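Q: I'm building a small set of examples for a reading group on sequence design. Run inverse folding on the following structure and report the sequence directly after it, with nothing in between.
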């Protein structure tokens, strides 16, 4: 079964279970690293004022998914199941991830140089149909198109 089909199937299996527990599915990936396959589920709370993800949250999702996956058995390869929080320096992938962190500092890595650099940190100002408006550390505003971003992570500021 194709990786995309596997992640779509797992997403469908998890959706109601996660919503019933007042969690959100932050990201889901099925990847090969070396000789091993990993099915990684990242869960979060919908609001930052609800606190973080607990070990009990991860365990309940893991047990539920493990039981269903054993029953359905649609992944041919052996794989490791990992359920965790996306972490403080979470990767931003979907528009709703970015929207949740408007006003926050983001670490961007781009596919091609913009204003002489492929890497920079900037405050996220706005999410729109055109992309992400950011304010760089020098005060300059820049509109980043979605397809130009290789990776974006929330900057942890203590």
């Amino acid at each position: 079964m194709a990786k995309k089909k596997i992640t779509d199937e797992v997403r469908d299996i998890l959706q109601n279970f996660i919503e019933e527990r007042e969690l959100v599915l932050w990201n889901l990936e099925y990847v090969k690293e070396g000789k091993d396959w990993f099915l990684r589920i990242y869960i979060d709370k919908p609001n930052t004022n609800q606190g973080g993800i607990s070990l009990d949250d991860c365990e309940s999702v893991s047990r539920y998914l493990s039981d269903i996956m054993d029953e359905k058995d649609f992944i041919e390869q052996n794989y490791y199941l990992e359920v965790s929080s996306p972490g403080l320096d979470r990767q931003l992938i979907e528009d709703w991830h970015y929207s949740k962190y408007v006003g926050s500092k983001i670490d961007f890595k781009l596919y091609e140089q913009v204003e002489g650099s492929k890497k920079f940190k900037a405050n996220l100002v706005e999410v729109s149909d055109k992309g992400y408006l950011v304010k760089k550390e020098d005060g300059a505003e820049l509109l980043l198109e979605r397809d130009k971003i290789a990776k974006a992570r929330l900057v942890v500021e203590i």
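The first helix runs from residue 3 to 20.
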